[in-house]
Amino acid sequence: MSRVGTVVLGPAGAGKTTFCNSLVTHMQQIGRNCHIVNLDPAAEAKKYEFTVDIRDLISLEDVMEELNLGPNGGLIYCFEFLLKNLDWLEEEIGDYNDEFLIIDCPGQIELYTHIPVFPTIINHLTRNMNFQLCCTYLMESTFVIDKSKFFSGTLSAMSTMLLLELPHINILSKVDLIKDQYSKKKLKQFLNPDPLLLEDGNDDNLLANKKFDRLNKLIANMIDEFGMVQYLPLNVNDSNSLTTILSYIDDVTQWSENQEPKDPVDEGLVPDEEEEFE
Ligand SMILES: Nc1nc2c(ncn2[C@@H]2O[C@H](COP(=O)(O)OP(=O)(O)OP(=O)(O)O)[C@@H](O)[C@H]2O)c(=O)[nH]1
């Protein structure tokens, strides 16, 4: 029996929910069972059939209205409430075995880089509930092809990795928005970036400031040391891209189904061609 899953994290608007929905559709098409767990108490109306939804326990809208809190204070209140009710989460997730959880999280990265909310939830899922989890951390490709933003995004990803202590996969989302040849070339550079590329460039005014030269090099070396140097491109409309990402997730969570993946035709997920032409 394997209880596995991925926690989908990243800054606001990075494409986490879109990725969760595409991954679940992709997994259903290849005959694998999976469920979406929504841990965003501020999520808009249901976009997808969530198996577990924190809004059934507490929603940001209610908290802001009833306790007169702002959005950030309200969000922290929601998670403190969840931490006091982890048995609710356990009951909702139930006894799923041989299935896969895709956990959609809020974009307020301070929840997993600054305060111990997510580490506690992750600890509960891994230690008490026996889940093998990994983190898929999304950053927008249009954002990171700017060198200084690449480094600031990578440092956020790294602090998430250090705080959550999970196997970590970096993903560059929205690659379909990279259209011109120059940006495509730049994107390629950031898929397996040489952290020392900081040293050579003068195309970025911020990093051209010689006063910060030594600091920049030290940061680049630290990123290299922590192995934060591989990024998988995500194109939600391309099944090859989803297949690659899923194979990385399977690898780091050591997913092993006791049996062959189910046949999507047998499962009625895609039309049987013969039937169609009869
Ligand atoms: N072109 C393009 N747009 C995308 C892609 N993924 C997401 N978007 C758009 O980006 C916006 C944000 O996407 P979401 O999936 O809601 O992002 P999120 O990270 O879940 O957002 P928060 O939960 O608010 O942090 C939406 O308008 C999406 O339609 C993508 O792969 N390509």
TrEMBL record:
CDD domains: GPN3. Residues 269-278 have a biased composition (Acidic residues). Keywords: GTP-binding, Hydrolase, Nucleotide-binding. The keyword GTP-binding applies. It comes from Saccharomycopsis crataegensis. This is GPN-loop GTPase 3. The keyword Magnesium does not apply. Belongs to the GPN-loop GTPase family. It comes from the Eukaryota. Pfam families: ATP_bind_1. Residues 256-278 are annotated as: Disordered. Binds to RNA polymerase II (RNAPII). GO terms for molecular function: GTP binding; GTPase activity.
